[in-house]
Write a structure and sequence with these properties.
232 residues, DNA polymerase, domain 1, alpha/beta, globular, two-stranded antiparallel ribbon, 2 domains, Rossmann fold
Length: 232
């Protein structure tokens, strides 16, 4: 089994944890975390992906992630370079994010390794590793996502938005209401119709969905999916 590593998260977390330490300590931590992830997943090989500098989502919605104004960890760029040179990490294809590269490369024989819940819209095997904070622990978790389960997560996000990425959904719809609105939908077409009706504005729906959608093949443009749903 091949692990598909969300290396954006790996290098960011290791850089942030070594903010007051030397680069050598940050490098040790990124090596240790990668080894730990491969051991925990039982992977016999891996591909690690980093996002590039350009991002098609910002051309669709310029405010995408504009809320992330905190300074980046001091060792972040050095760890990215180290990952590319020493850990065989790969940059995602031009204008795509690491998330898209993970989604595109997911197969029956791979497992996406990430802490990002958004990636659970991609069917298949997933692993999120243990993280800890003051007084709390989020344990290791293996998940096997179905196609319909992934689409339900995506359409719920379309309704409620994603504050982490500065994506607005429909006003006054939060997590609980989004789940309730789709609870009786048993097909992807029913979920699409419910969300489209809730928006009442196709342009806004297409914009938000296009930014939220994680690609699952290299031609996977969400507007094409929208048109296919409408024609059914």
């Amino acid at each position: 089994m091949k692990a598909l590593i969300d290396h954006d998260l790996v290098v960011f977390r290791c850089a942030a944890s070594a903010e007051n330490d030397s680069l050598n300590i940050a490098i040790h931590r990124v090596e240790a975390l990668l080894d730990e992830l491969l051991t925990k997943t039982g992977a016999d090989s891996y591909r690690a992906f980093l996002s590039g500098k350009s991002n098609f989502r910002k051309t669709i919605y310029p405010e995408y992630k504009a809320n992330r104004t905190a300074p980046k960890p001091v060792h972040l760029e050095a760890l990215r370079e180290y990952a590319l040179e020493k850990q065989n990490a790969e940059l995602a294809p031009d204008t795509l994010e690491a998330d898209d590269a993970l989604g595109i490369n997911q197969t029956d024989d791979t497992m996406i390794v990430s802490l990002d819940k958004d990636l659970l819209m991609v069917p298949g095997k997933h692993f999120s590793w243990e993280i800890k904070g003051k007084g709390w622990t989020k344990p290791d978790k293996f998940t096997e996502q179905t196609k319909l389960g992934g689409l339900r997560l995506f359409f719920e996000q379309c309704l409620k938005g994603d504050t982490a990425d500065n994506i607005k959904g429909i006003e006054k719809i939060g997590n609980k209401r989004a789940k309730s609105m789709l609870a009786d939908c048993i097909t992807e077409q029913q979920m699409f119709d419910a969300v489209r009706n809730a928006y009442g504005n196709d342009d806004e729906f297409i914009m938000n969905a296009s930014v939220l959608w994680i690609m699952q093949n290299e031609e996977d443009v969400w507007k094409d999916r929208f048109n296919a749903y409408v024609q059914k």
